[in-house]
Amino acid sequence: MSADGWGALAGLRVIDLTQMLAGPFCTMLLADQGAEVIKVEPPDGDQTRRAGMHLAGDEERLFGGYFQSINRNKKSIAIDLKTEDGKAILHNLVTDADVLVENFRAGTMEGLGLSYESLAEINPRLVYATIRGFGDPRTGASPYADWPAFDVVAQAMGGIMSITGPEPDRPMKVGPGVGDTVPAMLLTIGILSAVHHAGRTGQGQFVDVAMYDGILALCERIVHQHSYGGVVPGPEGNAHPLLCPFGMFPAKDGWISIACPRDHFWVILTEIMGRPELGTDPHYLENVDRSARNDEVVAIVSDWTRELTKAELIELLGGKVPFGPVNTVADIVSDPHVEARHMLAEVSHPGNEHTVKIANTPIHMNKTQGGVHRRTPTLSQDADDVLAAAGYDAAEIARLRESGVII
């Protein structure tokens, strides 16, 4: 049982061996819903502890904004898993765990003598989950299985770069690290599915999501476009290949988005624009007609929007057609929607008197609301508590610390 016992996943114990973004984002999603997540770090900590942004006075650079954002609600213990004592600690933790998550390259855990098979012998109910660039050989031996991968690699190979960008022959990276976070979300679904199965049958299993596969699944549209139409979609700019108008349009002081693929919304938009005849013109009457004249329709709408400010467009379009201003983070943090939905969490920062804001969970539940309950831990902050709960006495904990097995 997790210490606080809050959230829909209270009582679910997760051993988190992940680093960087993909794995920690997955375990963060579980922790946000009340799972007890024990983050097992190497002696020098997760690499992202040293990534920015840092506050003044963070001399050791072991607690930056990147790390704070995706490791909240977790406990931390730093263990040297290359030692026999370190392996024994992990074995003890696995004994009563529900889930173990890791995102090392294929073969790393086997090299440590901590394979899925060996841990499943200790705990047959264990759900062992992985995120790797190209998956695990257990679920499909990719020719790229030994390749290291980060977000941009997954974005490149999974297809999202090929349809992103303003120019037909110039693919572009998506801003946020979707090559990490999308596979992480998918792995979370896989973990919870496997936990449900284990609860019914007592049988754990191996769960695997490749970053490449996660982005391919996200880009499902390009597959049916190719299969049905024989086309190879390229960068789409700020429009949509099948829906119109659907994209970004200029304002006098910035940009807005409009999405009126449904014909009745198009009629409303043309009336607001003062061009009601376009709503009945057979050239623009249905979405398929407008899509065939996408450049022309976008130009018509753009000529109207660019003469107005974002505030004027909000007044004219808000609540009438699918519409929204293009927000910067400065706009977002002052948006009343964000406050009403509790989408920003304020947390403390070790060694600093100031609090900071991080993104909160977007999942809202009326009985077991999750979210940020505890700031991210300092390196090995919870070592004593974790080991004591695993049956180690004070003398044994002191010996492990003195020998360097734990920090």
Give structural attributes.
407 residues; alpha/beta; Rossmann fold; six-stranded parallel sheet; three-stranded antiparallel sheet; elongated
Could you explain how this protein is built, in words?
The protein is α/β, with parallel strands linked by helices and 407 residues long. The protein has 2 domains: 13-217 and 345-402, Rossmann fold (3-Layer(aba) Sandwich); 246-333, formyl-coa transferase, domain 3 (2-Layer Sandwich). The chain contains 17 helices and 11 strands. The strands form 3 sheets. The protein has a 6-stranded parallel β-sheet with strand order 3-2-1-4-5-6, sandwiched between helices. Strand 2, helix 2 and strand 3 form a beta-alpha-beta unit. Helix 7 crosses helix 8 (211-218). It is elongated. The mean pLDDT is 95.
Helices and strands in order:
Elements: E1 13-16, H1 22-32, E2 36-41, H2 65-70, E3 74-78, H3 84-95, E4 99-102, H4 108-111, H5 116-122, E5 127-132, H6 151-158, H7 178-201, E6 205-210, H8 211-218, H9 220-229, E7 246-251, E8 254-259, H10 263-272, H11 287-292, H12 294-305, H13 310-317, E9 323-325, H14 329-333, H15 336-340, E10 344-349, E11 352-359, H16 383-389, H17 394-402
Parallel strand pairs: 1-2, 1-4, 2-3, 4-5, 5-6
Antiparallel strand pairs: 7-8, 8-9, 10-11
